[in-house]
Amino acid sequence: MKNVNFRLLNLESEKMSENMSLETLCVQGGWNPKKGEPRVLPIYQSTTFRYETSDQMARLFDLKDSGYFYTRLQNPTNDAVAAKIAALEGGVAAMLISSGQAASFYSIFNICEAGDHFVSASAIYGGTFNLFAVTMKKLSIEVSFVDQDADEAEIAKAFRPNTKALFAETIANPILKVLDIEKFAHIAHTHNVPLIVDNTFATPINCRPFEFGADIVIHSTTKYMDGHATSVGGCIVDSGNFDWEAHEDKFPGLTQPDPSYHGLAYSSSFGKGAYITKATVQLMRDLGSIPSPQNAFLLNIGLETLHLRVPRHCENAQKVAEFLEKNEKVAWVNYSGLPSNKYYALARKQFKNGHSCGVVTFGLKGGREESLRFIDSLKLAAIVTHVADARTCVLHPASHTHRQLSDEQLIAAGVQPDLIRFSVGIEDPTDIISDIRQALEKI
Ligand SMILES: *Cc1c(COP(=O)(O)O)cnc(C)c1O
To answer: What tens digit of pLDDT does each residue of 79-137 get?
Structure first.
């Protein structure tokens, strides 16, 4: 078993990854067995780890040595998978966490405390919206939502002296707005705060937000990364680029002594590893949202084919979007791979091969009623509360995930009442399109 140093990555063990392509990292990143060790990443299904002297253990508790001692803080299976994702995103350190929701929460709570404020794009996942607008408010952490397509001067108006972060999704779920990451990074840095990007839908195969100036990336690994709909999970990756000490007063949690570690300060002790070290040894220690090693193992198997699956999802989605756009019963189609799409040029600039994700949204001329009849007539595409797994699936947000909202609230959230969220899988595209065709014929 390797000792992974949480001071600076998982990347310590990842020196071999420096010149490897994303494809190779998907297959081999994170786990480099030595002589006689298992070729496949093992599941370290152990809550605890043995030491020989009490002093060895004490040094771990003081963060003077690195090593595993209790799985709530770190586990070798989880760390190997975190290291793979860090390498895929081009970051310096990462941590796995039990869900995408937990990743969103920790990413903000690691730098904001009661009395602080952050700015978020309004086009975000519904669960994240509730977390930010309702639950974090109860902790006295306030959020202001902005229209991500507004110009810099407009968005800048949301910033206050106590603003600590800017948050957005690379591709918004479910309304598929594409974020201009460079613009957002510029706004964040002008206000001396980090940009946190939820890169769930694009995945590092299509987009690496650090290359456009993002500082921290989070994922719901439940989606394309797992890819098979087996395990809920999340991940937080740090680029190591944000200079906390340059804005010492703004980020006391990172730059000032932590009384729960005898006055150690993360930025001076751990440098580029400060943010992930704090999230691990302080937040994970106290809040405990760890993924099980078993789930990390399954996530790793998903990651081994991410580079094959994601392009296939996107090619299939492109074909579906083109088919829908030509069909006379379809009122509108939203997919950034269509030249008619508002985000087409931005997607070509930011995403590899212009590929965004496998999710297409559209509406039917008959509106809400016809949308429901269409969904009920699908055979290959299943009605499930999920997106981004190998099997094609479909959801009507107005009747399902956003059911509590009135039509006006739906429109304000950018979710039209007739919107169908269609997550294109990796089956034969001809079969997917035949299924859509036969369902359209029923309406
Ligand atoms: C699903 C999702 C989340 C929440 O992730 P869970 O793993 O379900 O907790 C966050 N962000 C985006 C973009 C998502 O699609």
So the answer is: 999 999 999 999 999 999 999 999 999 999 999 999 999 999 999 998 999 999 999 99
> How many CB atoms sit inside 10 A of residue 296's CB?
26
Q: Quick one: 247 exposed, middle or buried, by C-beta within 10 A (0-12, 13-18, 19+)?
A: middle
Provide residues with CB under 6 Å of ligand 1: 99-101, 125, 127-128, 169, 173, 198, 200-201, 220, 222-223, 232, 234
In ligand 1, the atom with minimum distance to the C-alpha of 200 is 13
Beta-strand pair 117-121/216-220? unpaired
Per DSSP, the residues of 300-330 read HHHHTTHHHHHHHHHHHHHHHHHHHHH-TTE
Ligand 1 centre distance from Cα of residue 125 (Å):
7
Q: What is the pTM of this model?
A: 0.95
Q: How far is the CA of 100 from the centre of ligand 1 (A)?
A: 5
Q: Which two tokens stand for residue 4?
A: 């992974």
Task: Point out the ligand 1 atom lying closest to the alpha carbon of residue 124.
Answer: 13
For residue 328, the CA-to-ligand 1 centroid distance in Å is 33
